[in-house]
Fold:
Amino acid sequence: MEAKGTEIRLRPIGVIRSTIKERSEAPKQGSEGAPDAWLEVSSFAAEGLDGLRVGDEIIVITWLHQGRRDTLQVHPRSDPRRRLAGVFATRSPDRPNPLGLHRVTVREVSENQLRIGPMEAIDGTPVIDIKPVLADVQDS
Amino acid sequence: MEAKGTEIRLRPIGVIRSTIKERSEAPKQGSEGAPDAWLEVSSFAAEGLDGLRVGDEIIVITWLHQGRRDTLQVHPRSDPRRRLAGVFATRSPDRPNPLGLHRVTVREVSENQLRIGPMEAIDGTPVIDIKPVLADVQDS
Structure:
């Protein structure tokens, strides 16, 4: 069954500023040695940051703009020795809607910018949403 | 700074089929008494499910199609006694890009459908992506 051809438009709320400039340099996960980065929130959305504090754990949702959207199966972790798996069973950036989920800590808050880490997304990655990690472990 | 007016179009990969029909009936979080639901994956994306198994913990990303996109501040948990907070410091469905994150367990796999739970999203909610929960606790 098709989802009725619903089309959804996202408007980025900000962008990642990072020392990682190329996908080839990026760790696959933040916990694999990623640096801190700046999340610059666009002026239209800056009011939405109210209440975020240094030390908060947040989930940043990004648009992995270099992901290939026509890919449905991949070798996990780009390892050709691992058998092909559906993209929904992997964290590959290649998937129909290449959204990235990044669990990070807020290191610094400066007007409409957050310094966050560890963050594996590359410089220029659009940011779609920011959510607090819930204390409830079911939702971490 | 604005994110250069980037516009992103999502194509839902599936839809939630639930006994919860109205937003007013839905628990705020899955852990607050939500039922199981079916996630029907569209035929174009079904190949992406390969490798998902009963018992897997997954994160389902939905489009909260009833969210108000012009809201930047809310009273947390709709409680007027709580002071206004920026939407990025809350899990409110009202936000510029109303994506929902749902951590659920796969209960059953049947062709292009997954029975998942607990799931608080209402019937008809578009599904945007499915990702495995990583064993690494940093990224759960």
Notes: Chain A touches chain B through 61 residues (CB under 8 Å). Chain A is about 0% helix and 35% strand. Chain A has a mean pLDDT of 90.
